[in-house]
Automatic annotation (TrEMBL):
Domain ABC transporter: start-end pairs: 8-247
Any one cellular-component term (Gene Ontology): plasma membrane
Pfam family, one: ABC_tran
Keywords: Amino-acid transport, ATP-binding, Cell membrane, Membrane, Nucleotide-binding, Transport
Name of this protein: Amino acid ABC transporter ATP-binding protein
Chief location category: membrane
Molecular functions per Gene Ontology: ABC-type amino acid transporter activity; ATP binding; ATP hydrolysis activity
Family: Belongs to the ABC transporter superfamily.
UniProt keyword ATP-binding present: yes
Membrane topology category: Peripheral membrane protein
SMART domains reported in the protein's UniProt record: AAA (SM00382)
Subcellular localization, as worded in the UniProt entry: Cell membrane
Amino acid sequence: MSDTAPLIKIEGLHKSYGGVVQVLQGLDIEMTAGDRVVIIGPSGGGKSTLLRVLMGLEQIDRGSITFGGNPYISAKSGKTAIDAKVRRSIGMVFQHYTLFPHLDVIGNLILAPTKVRGEKKADARERAMALLTRFGLAQKANAYPAQLSGGQKQRVAIARALMLDPKLMLFDEVTSALDPELVAEVEQVILQLAHQQMPMVIVTHDMWFARNIASRVIFCAGGVVVEDGPPEQVLGSPKEERTREFIERVFHIKH
């Protein structure tokens, strides 16, 4: 990975469903290894689709993505090429946890390192316990997902993603399914990662969280970037009328 290249460079990204519903329409975004990018925008604006594309979970129609200056995802002749090695250096946490219900917490954490990397179980368990302790979940190591609160499940999901030592973390509305009193415990874990300089892309509707964690806020609508800048500018005094209308409608903040 080049020290001077952007961590992520997205150029001319197009994504449709069935060739009819255009979700991303020529998206261009760059981020550095020091960025914590928060993406906001209306439903259907392509935010979650962008994260799924970055994770290699969606095919694209046109465009390209590089990671650390190296080719990662591209579309040629209607086919999407994805570098699996690069994909393994990206971690993603979804809105609905996606934990394996038949595995206990420790089993969820050690599955990928032992299966994907061939790591010894004892070594993986040691690292998993260190993460669970750090996130205040050591006592839940042998619990099953059904025995956890929503906030605990989401913290386990974050710990599981970190087990593969990602160079970039993606968070897709990770607090939107939680009761209000559980939101803070998950946001504190992500803030902790931010303080440790973990690059991340976050989709959220939580204004407080966006202000406190973002180095940049990107407003997406209609499948394109409408506005991109520091949080105090985009959230505090947006330049674009579409951004201003969205923030006033969703966050009830008048400019």
